Amino acid sequence: MAKVLFLNGSPHAKGCTATAFDEMISVLHGEGLETEVVQVGSRAVRGCVACNSCSKTGKCVFDDDPINETAAKFEAADGLVIGSPVYYSSPNGTLLSFLDRLFYSTAFSKHMKVGAAVVSCRRGGNSSSFDVLNKYFSISGMPIATSTYWNMIHGFTAEDARKDSEGLQTMRNLARNMAFLIRAIAAQGALPQVERGAFTSFCDGK
Ligand SMILES: Cc1cc2nc3c(=O)[nH]c(=O)nc-3n(C[C@H](O)[C@H](O)[C@H](O)COP(=O)(O)O)c2cc1C
Question: Which of 37, 43, 145, 158 is most buried by its number of CB atoms within 10 A?
Answer without folding.
Answer: 145
